[in-house]
């Protein structure tokens, strides 16, 4: 019986696993060193009335529409009353809490119900997957008054 089979098989398996892991990590688009995403307005803690205009800030990278692959670019996503997803290696969902600005918009106007709301920006690449490391703003809280 050939006893060298098992160690070789184990080594080959380990190699495949490492390769697969490296491939997954390489799939994420790198963010530029020092790049920053932030909410210009409203300010954290602001009390606002009526529709609220949210202005998106970006430093150190550029905006490109969704679907367009170009180095050091991406598009904004506004997370409304939700948190950044646990797995940043996946494309962001698109729903009322995760709004994509795939045309390259840098601001939006929201109609929110009266009360407290949280807002956070998350930048992502042409496939809607956050960069590595991910670029996100601070999560702010605003109060919409009647
Ligand atoms: Cu998107």
Ligand species: copper (II) ion
Shape: elongated
Distance between the termini: 81 Å
* Category from helices, strands and their pairing: alpha+beta
Run of helices and strands: HEEEEEEEEE
What is the CA-atom radius of gyration, in angstroms? Answer: 20 Å
Fraction of residues in helices? Answer: 10-25%
Count of separate DSSP helical elements: 1
The total of beta strands comes to 9
Uncertain segments are: 1-7, 9-25
DSSP strand (E) fraction?
25-35%
For the report, how would you describe the main beta sheet? 6 strands, mixed
Please tell me the overall pLDDT: 88
Quick structural summary:
With 146 residues, the chain is α+β, with helices and mostly antiparallel strands.
Write the layout of secondary structure elements.
Elements lengths: L4 H23 L8 E6 L5 E3 L2 E8 L2 E2 L9 E8 L17 E3 L6 E4 L4 E10 L15 E6 L1
The chain binds copper (II) ion.
Give the tags.
single chain; alpha+beta; 6-stranded mixed β-sheet; 3-stranded antiparallel β-sheet; 1 helix; binds copper (II) ion
Report on the structure:
This protein has 146 residues and is of the alpha+beta class. It is 16% helix and 34% strand. The protein has 1 helix and 9 strands; from the N terminus they run αβββββββββ. The longest helix is centred in the N-terminal third of the chain and has 23 residues, at 5-27. The radius of gyration is 20 Å and the shape is elongated. The N and C termini lie far apart (81 Å). The model is unreliable at 1-7 and 9-25 (pLDDT under 50). The chain binds copper (II) ion. The site of copper (II) ion has 8 residues, from strand 5.
């Amino acid at each position: 019986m050939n006893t060298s089979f098992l160690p070789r098989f184990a080594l080959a398996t380990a190699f495949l696993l490492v390769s697969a892991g490296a491939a997954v990590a390489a799939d994420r688009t790198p963010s530029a060193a020092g790049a920053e995403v932030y909410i210009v307005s409203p300010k954290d803690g602001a009390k606002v009335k009526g529709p609220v205009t949210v202005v998106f800030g970006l430093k150190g990278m550029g905006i490109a529409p969704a679907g367009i692959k170009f180095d050091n670019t991406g598009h904004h996503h506004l997370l409304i009353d939700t948190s950044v997803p646990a797995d940043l290696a996946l494309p962001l969902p698109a729903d009322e809490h995760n709004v994509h600005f795939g045309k390259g918009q840098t601001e939006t106007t929201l109609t929110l119900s009266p009360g407290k709301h949280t807002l956070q920006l998350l930048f992502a690449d042409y496939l809607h997957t956050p960069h590595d490391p991910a670029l996100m703003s601070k999560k702010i809280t605003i109060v919409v008054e009647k």
